[in-house]
Design a protein that fits this description.
The chain is mostly beta strands. A six-stranded mixed beta sheet has the order 4-26-25-24-23-19.
């Protein structure tokens, strides 16, 4: 294993409006890297670049109105060494490519995880060549589409050559726009290789790409939305112009404090100069700053570095590069490795550092041209360079198209190379290195992403001599090792693609998580429509999951004093369960981690006589007894256990002390309290909350001074927290063991804090304007927080990664809720 460390020192704030510096800096860096190609592998040279201040552009307003028709520049597929790639391809065809470590896709969905087969939540055709030419103009007649897709809280954004389009999550086209106009591409150049990401940590969209002409000139672009609305205003930065340097196939990744862009520099003769890595200060980009701190690195011994999208908070940005093929600079087919680059520090702190580790993997080979029924190939430009990368919780996945012989086959095929890397410990290490393939099929351009569960999602194109090129996806559950579900059809091909004398396919597929539906991932790829013989291409998108959607039961006091409930078992909307209650109910359900069938909730409420009553969805109201309690306000209720279930109820007694009781939950009927209530003392000013913290049931109460206190059944007294709240607090423990606390702050916003076992985090505002206490439903997918809006008294729901979503209704005094899976 080789390990290289290169440090960038002295990264400075970029000056406003100086547009010529990137030309000199990048061209000079590329030339310097090219002259040092004989030096040590992994050698990086650092430079400082300057980009101009951003333009402010409303993306939806760009629409189809472009005043400039852009030249029809054919984007060549640029290789480091075309002759070496051709020789490697021929050798792979003769040898069959990789024979060991080849994994077959499952023959049925149930072969992987019978209880949770892959589910398709949405599936629709997206952008086509015909549509974008019709909508925007004849200069959109380009191949390949370079399919990219990302999902935000309310919509899906697809970017292709040369348009961007917004879609509802049910497949309705909301709007599309010309990327040439959005980025103000010079008239002699053409935009290409878009990348689109939604960064859930900042709530911003990122859109990037480059433009070039036939004389070897180019510009690179990075744009960041000002809000989570992709149709609003964006800050658009231009990097360039670059005279005599083509910044080919730029790719974008993100982590907590940095945005990383990578590309290959070529000269006007399509000769490779160097690989470029640009590290930008994320906070400045998000703010739309006129001065952005940037660190730029070049290396002539890297080719096609791929930055990862980080799906969990980390201040290390990860980059992967294929060094397992001698056709790549710095690569070796006899001592093959994967370059794993950790980028730490920030440009603003002048301490950006690139640390490269090269763990061993199996050699890769350029795949043969894929087959289709027409007998001609749909793609004449590809190799085994890496295509995508994603990081989450110390696991890094990256993908490529490789040459292999599938199990049961005798021919060399296009296979999906998937590599899993652990980034924990002293150095990254390879956990899995596999080719995924199906006998008789070519499967190519895989893109990877992850659900929060660690399940791996892969989108790709598949074709054969009897199968038209179609868009597909497969899932590898995190518990399955190397097993995959059966292919999920996004859009089947219905024709053979005719792209002329040099047909192009790909160059990418796309996969991205849905921040509003944790456990679900959007996948997209290119497919051949019925008119593909005339040169039309099409893209398809789908949302797929192995998880059941989060199920939550919500209860509240209606304006007429009755209990109103939303629960999946009742269908949509609010349903009255009757009664006469004086406060929000406690809602409880048995633990049901990721269950495909939601658990049945129980509702415990304080009646007008101050007695507690209980009911389920099927069984009507009964007095919670025979040992009864008289309470002020709403109670707290929680069910714990697995084989034996225990219902714990807490309430504020008539003397303002905390009272607690528990009972076993029967297999049928309603639980009853057969022993007396325990007073835990204190002087409460609102109803309590209850949830396990670690393995101990903990009670949260609001004192008369507005401070929240906690105690357990065995602790000698109350412990003060730092939280100052209004009204009843809320708490719940999720499937991962983390406890979430929520309350209404003094400014009436929703505040949350978490405890994963190492103590409580600081309380963070999630905004809103509340009246009454909130509720927490900690589903196994994501905690759902619910609250009554102060202005219209409707119930609103949100999670830590989404905005507020209205559930309607008109309630009194707050809400109660419980997770049902």
């Amino acid at each position: 294993m080789k390990r290289f460390v290169r440090v960038c020192i002295g990264s400075t704030a970029l000056a406003l409006g100086v547009a010529v510096a990137p030309t000199a800096a990048m061209a000079g860096a590329a030339a310097q890297a090219a002259t040092s190609a004989a030096g040590p592998a992994g050698q990086f040279h650092s430079q400082h670049v300057t980009i101009p201040a951003p333009r402010l552009v409303n993306l939806r307003a760009v629409g189809h109105a472009t005043g400039t028709q852009h030249a029809h520049v054919v984007p060549p597929f640029r290789y480091f060494n075309p002759a070496a790639v051709a020789a490697g391809r021929a050798a792979a065809v003769r040898s069959g490519g990789r024979h060991t470590g080849v994994v077959a896709l499952a023959s049925s969905k149930n072969a992987v995880r019978a209880v949770t087969p892959a589910n398709t939540l949405a599936d629709f055709p997206a952008m086509t060549l015909t549509r974008q030419v019709h909508d925007i103009g004849s200069d959109q007649a380009l191949q390949p589409p370079d399919t990219q897709l990302a999902a935000g809280p309310g919509s899906v954004l697809e970017a292709v050559n040369d348009s961007v389009s917004a879609w509802s999550k049910t497949g309705s086209l909301l709007w599309d726009a010309d990327l040439n106009a959005f980025f103000q591409v010079p008239s002699g150049q053409l935009f290409s290789d878009p990348r689109v990401l939604y960064d859930a940590q900042s709530g911003r969209w990122l859109l990037s790409g480059f433009s070039f002409d036939n004389s070897g000139n180019s510009q690179t672009y990075i744009a960041v939305s000002q809000t989570s609305d992709p149709g609003g205003t964006w800050n658009v930065y231009t990097i360039g112009p670059n005279s005599g340097v083509i910044t080919d196939q730029p790719m974008t990744g993100v982590c907590a404090d940095k945005v990383v862009m990578t590309w290959n520099d070529f000269n006007s003769s399509n000769t490779f100069l160097a690989a470029e890595t640009l590290v930008l200060q994320k906070s400045s980009l998000v703010a739309g700053a006129a001065q952005v701190n940037v660190a730029d690195f070049t290396s002539a011994s890297e080719f096609r570095s791929v930055p990862a999208q980080s799906l969990a908070p980390t201040t290390t940005c990860w980059v992967t590069v294929n060094k397992a093929d001698s056709a790549f600079p710095g690569g070796s087919s006899t001592s093959p490795t994967l370059g794993v680059i950790a980028i730490t520090g920030t440009p603003s702190a002048n301490n950006v550092k690139l640390t490269e580790t090269d763990p061993s993997i199996q050699a890769t080979s350029p795949p043969p041209d894929p087959q289709q029924p027409s007998g001609t190939t749909n793609n004449s430009g590809d190799d085994d360079r890496l295509l995508s990368a994603v990081w989450q919780d110390n696991v890094l996945w990256t993908s490529a198209t490789d040459a292999c012989t599938p199990t049961g086959d005798t021919a060399t095929r296009n296979c999906m190379r998937l590599i899993k890397v652990s980034t924990s410990g002293s150095a990254p290490s390879v956990l899995q290195d596999e080719d995924v393939a199906t006998s008789g099929l070519d499967e190519y351009y895989p893109a990877v992403s992850l659900a929060y569960t660690g399940d791996l999602f892969v989108s790709y194109t598949a074709s054969s001599s009897t199968l038209y090129p179609g868009a597909y996806a497969a899932i590898s559950p995190s518990v399955s090792g190397t097993a995959f579900t059966a292919p999920i059809t996004i859009n089947a091909g219905t024709g053979s693609y005719n792209g002329g004398s040099t047909p192009r396919w790909g160059d990418y597929s796309a996969a991205a998580p849905d921040p509003s539906a944790p456990g679900a991932v959007w996948v997209a790829a290119e497919y051949a429509p019925s008119d593909a013989a005339s040169g039309d291409w099409a893209t398809g998108a789908a949302e797929v999951t192995l998880s059941a959607p989060p199920a939550v039961a919500v209860g509240a006091e209606g304006s007429n004093g009755q209990l109103y409930v939303q629960a999946p078992q009742l269908g949509g909307g609010w349903h009255s369960l009757g009664g006469k209650i004086i406060a929000p109910p406690g809602v409880a359900a048995a633990p049901n981690t990721d269950g495909s069938k939601p658990a049945s909730p129980l509702f415990i409420a304080t009646a007008s006589n101050n007695k507690l009553y209980i009911r389920s969805l099927a069984v009507g109201w009964q007095v919670l007894g025979p040992h009864q309690a008289s309470c002020l306000g709403g109670p707290a209720a929680v069910i714990t256990g697995s084989t034996t279930l225990t219902l714990t109820v807490a309430c504020r007694g008539l003397n303002n002390a905390l009272y607690v009781n528990s009972a076993t939950v029967p297999s049928s009927g309603l639980p009853q309290f057969t022993h007396g209530w325990t007073s835990l003392g204190g002087t409460l000013s609102a109803g309590p909350a209850a949830a396990p913290v670690g393995g101990t049931m903990t009670f949260f109460v609001l004192g008369t001074n507005g401070r929240v206190y906690t105690r357990t059944l065995i602790s000698p007294g109350y412990s003060a927290t730092s939280w100052l709240c209004i009204g009843s607090p809320a708490a719940a423990q999720g499937a991962s063991g983390e406890t979430l606390f929520a309350c209404q702050g003094g400014n009436h916003a929703l505040y949350v804090a978490t405890n994963g076992g190492a103590g409580w985090s600081s309380a963070v505002s999630l905004g809103g304007s509340l009246t009454g206490g909130p509720a927490v439903a900690a589903t196994s997918r994501v905690p759902e927080l619910l609250a009554e809006n102060a202005s219209n008294h409707a119930v609103y729901e949100r999670s830590p990664v989404t905005g507020w979503v209205g559930l309607g209704g008109s309630v009194v005094g707050g809400v109660g809720a419980a997770a049902l899976n």
